[in-house]
Amino acid sequence: MLRAAESSIPVHTGLADIRADIDPETLQVHSVSAGGTTYTANRVFWCAPLPVLCKTVGWPLPKGEPQWELLGSFTFDEPVDSDYHEILFADPDHRIRRINFPGLFTNSRDTKTLQIEYTTIGEEAHRDGEEWKQGWLDSLRRLGIVGTNTEPKYYDFKKVSRGIVSTENLTVFLAECERRIQKANSNTRRPAHGGSLGQQRPPGSEGLPPH
Q1: Structure pTM?
Q2: Residue 167 — φ and ψ, nearest 5°?
Q3: Is 47 helix (H, G, I), strand (E, B) or coil?
Q4: Predicted confidence (pLDDT) per residue in 29-48, tens digit
Q5: β partners of residue 133
Q6: Where are the alpha helices (DSSP H) in the chain?
Q7: Which of 9, 41, 58, 91 lies 20 to 30 angstroms, CA to CA, from 110?
Q8: Is residue 159 a contact partner of residue 119, using CB atoms and an 8 Å limit?
């Protein structure tokens, strides 16, 4: 979201092509481009996580594997067999972290719907939704939650990014980010931290854009 620092504030949403021109040493934001327009401002608010800032200015990031959460939603013609609102898994034979039964959780009459959650990395994360559907149905049948020949009348698959998995010490990484930020002479502030990215510039100084 971009905002112009004036009494009448236009709000721009749905901008997927935001590009920031940021000096990697001083963290000065010279301009922000989005939706075919380039903006400049005297103050910028940075609301994204620190790793996003690091990636934007080319600072080194921890080495790791992208982590993905896979969600499979099923609706069947017959009620599913469960005495629980949810079931947690640690069995490697089933590519399942949790099964939720929304109808049981809300005490509604909908006992034909369930959702499977699974978090993974590497090549496994890039299997298509149909392959996951067949694997999950096999698990549901073996667990006795649905019948042997039961097929869903509705199925939906989603994959959501969940950061990275790393063996590096993230505390050290974050401390180094903070050290570099404190040395910077930036026109950008982090609202959640109540302060600027680095040393605060005097009022009226040139060169900060919107977030």
Answers
A1: 0.60
A2: -95, 0
A3: coil
A4: 999 998 888 989 888 888 87
A5: none
A6: 50-57, 102-105, 129-142, 170-183
A7: 91
A8: no
Distance of CA 174 to the CA centre of its chain: 18
What pLDDT does 135 receive?
Answer: 96
**Separation of alpha carbons 91 and 106, rounded Å:** 27
Q: What's the full length of the chain, in residues?
A: 211
The tens digit of pLDDT for each residue in 111-134 reads 899 999 999 999 999 999 999 999
Within 10 A of 99 (CB to CB), how many other CB atoms are there? 26
Picking from 44, 3, 49, 42, the residue whose alpha carbon sits closest to that of residue 20 is: 44
Alpha carbon distance 123, 183 (integer Å): 40
**Are the beta carbons of 118 and 159 closer than 8 angstroms?**
no
Which stretches of 78-184 are DSSP H helices? Answer: 102-105, 129-142, 170-183
Sign of the torsion formed by the C-alpha atoms of 120, 124, 130 and 132: negative
HSE-up of 60 (CA within 13 Å, CB side)? 8
